[in-house]
Amino acid sequence: MKWDELAEESCSMARTLSVIGDRWTLLILRDCFLGVRRFDAFQDRLGVTRGILSDRLKQLTEAGVLKKIAYQDRPPRHEYKLTAKGLDLYPVVLSIVHWGDRHMAGDAGRPVLHRHQSCGHLFDPVLSCSECGDPLRPQEVDVLPGPGRTDDRHLPVTARRSG
Amino acid sequence: MKWDELAEESCSMARTLSVIGDRWTLLILRDCFLGVRRFDAFQDRLGVTRGILSDRLKQLTEAGVLKKIAYQDRPPRHEYKLTAKGLDLYPVVLSIVHWGDRHMAGDAGRPVLHRHQSCGHLFDPVLSCSECGDPLRPQEVDVLPGPGRTDDRHLPVTARRSG
DNA sequence: CTGAGTCGGTTCTGAAATCGAACTTAATTT
DNA sequence: AAATTAAGTTCGATTTCAGAACCGACTCAG
Lengths: 163, 163
Fold this sequence. Notes:
By secondary structure, chain A is of the alpha+beta class. Chain A is 39% helix and 17% strand. A two-stranded antiparallel ribbon of chain A has the order 1-2. Chain A is globular and about 60 Å long. At the A-B interface, helix 2, helix 3, helix 4, helix 7 and strand 3 of A face helix 2, helix 3, helix 4, helix 7 and strand 3 of B. Strand 3 (112-116) of chain A pairs antiparallel with strand 5 of chain B, so a sheet runs across the interface. Chain A binds a DNA duplex through helix 4 and helix 5.
């Protein structure tokens, strides 16, 4: 399967991965959320080759996750900023960071801490139910066919016993 | 930068991506959460080549995300199951799916729906603060150096003005 | 007891992606 | 005039991936 075929799958995960399912892309997004905006700044921080960086920034821009904003005209220069669509990736990024904090931090502890401005506390992110507010656990979630389903390859195995 | 170097970075995101930062790995994990357990079942559902699948399952097992469990002896056969460490990736997987639901679903709507058993409602996942319970927004989160930090390449740009 | 099928892989070759380094273009600074 | 900055592009060498065939241990049907 190729990257552009991924986007056609009847699965929201596959479609999302067609945009962000690459390690450099996700590291670029991490830096975006940390306030990095310029080509050379990404390159210095990430250590990625310029060719790859150029390609990934173009893809993210075409996908509507980043937008190019000019900050001077002669010579033309611009910076990359997260769109609303890109800002919506915050839960993805923070969930990934949090798993690393819990399971990949060495004895020295986690490399960064997060503080919630509105309550003032250091916190961990928790994924919870929009309806009742309780934390979500995989055993307590049913996966059902939705209106946009075109095949049942991505339903749970327990829901496909008829075939 | 190579994959094994990623694991040494002073950044929880980079460390996590050294384990799951690959599109096939994440699709394998999606299927794990949907109840897929066996090599050929993964191969049928994903359309991945057997060589890649073999490699990724080995990596996930070595990383402690999956464990091999024998279900018969002659010939030796086993299945792959999520460990506790693997189950902790649920917020990552669900956040990715949810972003796809919001931003990549076509006119037909999302391919699958999620129902929370304990409250009975169809829901969206929300990332919230462990301390006050409010939804987290990137503008309201401060990133601070933690005890395990070994350099400041992964701090926000605003926290590095001294250098 | 032969032949097909199952399961969990490995091996092979050509195609594609990535790496590192150098080069380009337009403008400013020394 | 020469160096520097910013945002890329280009190029050859290396690495990874895709697609297909093959393998080994066993079971089952005839």
